[in-house]
Amino acid sequence: MLIRAMTVDDLPSGLRLSRAAGWNQTPDDWQTMLALAGNGAFVAVAASQVIGTTMVCRFERAGWVAMVLVDERFRRQGIGRRLVEHALRLADEAGIETLALDATPLGRPLYEQLGFTVESEFSRYIGQPKLEAEGDGFVMRPIDAADLDAIVAIDRHAIGCDRRRLFERWFSTPAVEGMVCVVDGRVRGFAFHRPGAVARHIGPCMADDESIGQALLKRALRDAAACNVYVDAPRNHPSAIAIAEAAGLNYQRPFWRMRRGPGQIASLETVWATSGPEKA
User: Fold this and answer.
1) Which of 42, 131, 196, 259 could form a disulfide with 24 if both were Cys (CB 3.0 to 4.6 A apart)?
2) What whole-number distance in Å separates Cα of residue 210 and Cα of residue 207?
3) Is residue 121 classed as helix, strand or coil in its secondary structure?
């Protein structure tokens, strides 16, 4: 088995692996993550076939481990571990101080062995939302590029790193939609939603006020009423969980945000729904 750098020619193979695993990524998602990872994306190859992937999407001096996938025929052979260890070693050499990831139940034991610790738990909800329209008294409008600085500031407060490059990619992707809540001329919260292979993904949804956050998540769910959706809500945020359940969504599974190195999630109480880049 060979581990080498991922190229754009490998994207169809990555998409094949994520589809086989039942993950939600689209071709646009894979292109975005490869752009964010740069030379931090890798594939495992056997008999000239891509059988595994991983990448570290970089945001300043922080990195996000994503897309740890192994072909089902080659699992339980240590390939996932070798891919992640390879990526972590090169991330350390590149001076990335803090590494984070969102771990599924399948991946969590491996990441604990590699020195990652759990910071928080999220719950994934899935279904077709059913929420009646209600007045919330807030001014909301579609997101545009002029909102970028405000969105980055709110996101950085919640996540602990600058994800400007991710939002810039989303602004240039027509399929990604969103809204902002404006109070007294200032953006106080935002919500994105984008298409997926399995369901439309709502998130991130963030706001610096409880009422604004609730209104944004409800509005996003109503906008997606004709779709199957994913909502990944912080387990310790009762309002977000209650809204997902009131919309008729079904709990699917947990996942954990994990970290290796200094730093921490800054303010999860401002998060109503999260987004990876994607789950590890």
Assistant:
1) 196
2) 7
3) strand
Crossing angle of helices 27-37 and 11-20, in 10° steps, is 120
Phi, psi of 141 (to 5 degrees): -145, 165
Q: Are 75 and 46 in contact (CB under 8 A)?
A: no
Amino acid residing at 188: R
Q: How far apart are CA 31 and CA 100, in angstroms?
A: 20
CB-hemisphere CA count at 13 Å for 142? 7
DSSP code, position 167: H
Express each pLDDT in 160-218 by its tens digit: 889 999 999 999 988 899 999 999 999 999 999 999 999 999 999 999 999 999 999 99
d(CA 115, CA 99): 10
| Counts for the chain of helices (H) and strands (E), in that order | 8, 13
On whether the CB atoms of residues 28 and 14 are closer than 8 A, the answer is: no
